[in-house]
Amino acid sequence: MQEKDLGADLRSVLITKQEIDARLAELAAKIDAGYEGKDLLLVGVLKGAVMVMADLARALATPVTMDWMAISSYGAGTQSSGVVRILKDLDTDIKDKHVLIVEDIIDSGLTLSWLLSNLGSREPASLEIMTLLRKPEAAKVDIDVKWVGFDIPSEFVVGYGLDYGEKYRNLPFIGTLAPHVYGG
Ligand code: IMP
Ligand code: MG
């Protein structure tokens, strides 16, 4: 799906596919350096992190294993509820493993602080976070995010895995939608 396929639903392209690729290559080099000689388990958070996981994993030189969790903090709308549920747990035991959480976006940080304490209690050898996007709200919560792709304004964005009502995940870029899409 491309810009033209969105027609009037697209307001703006915030981050292009080229910018995402370039930034992921930079971060991959840093992550490679950070895990030299170690086995790395990437934990992706479904469904939003599918694209960033796929592209980051391929940009890494480090051999990795991948596992997935599905958690839910939002309904179909654009506001965080603060309620986190596990919809799908990891398949593997992460005890004594080097775990890197791969996230699409940190907004309020509620989802991530919950995930950190949940995974932390399973006694991994290390637990770090990489997120493609971070909104200003996230700075208010005390979460140490080791790798951030882009700091973006406090706006609802879609594309590259991120959805509005389960749509727009298959855009290759990050964009914002016209107000009429949100039921205006
Ligand atoms: P948080 O708990 O407020 O940090 O929200 C985390 C989750 O909310 C993300 O993993 C996304 O699934 C979703 N989310 C937050 N902001 C956006 C956005 O701008 N577009 C699409 N999904 C979002
Ligand atoms: Mg997410």
Automatic annotation (TrEMBL):
Pathway assigned in UniProt: Purine metabolism; GMP biosynthesis via salvage pathway; GMP from guanine: step 1/1; Purine metabolism; IMP biosynthesis via salvage pathway; IMP from hypoxanthine: step 1/1
One of the protein's GO biological processes: purine ribonucleoside salvage
Membrane spanning residue stretches: none
GO molecular function, one term: guanine phosphoribosyltransferase activity
Limits of the Phosphoribosyltransferase domain: 19-164
Organism of provenance: Streptomyces aidingensis
Entries under InterPro entries matching the protein: HGPRT, Hxn_phspho_trans, PRTase-like, PRTase_dom
Keyword Glycosyltransferase: yes
Names of the cofactor(s): Mg(2+)
Family per record: Belongs to the purine/pyrimidine phosphoribosyltransferase family.
GO CC terms: cytosol
Record's catalysed reaction(s): GMP + diphosphate = guanine + 5-phospho-alpha-D-ribose 1-diphosphate; IMP + diphosphate = hypoxanthine + 5-phospho-alpha-D-ribose 1-diphosphate
Keywords, alphabetical: Cytoplasm, Glycosyltransferase, Magnesium, Metal-binding, Nucleotide-binding, Purine salvage, Transferase
Protein name: Hypoxanthine phosphoribosyltransferase
Listed CDD domains: PRTases_typeI (cd06223)
Record bears the keyword Metal-binding: yes
EC number(s) on file: 2.4.2.8
Subcellular location field: Cytoplasm
One Pfam family named in its UniProt record: Pribosyltran
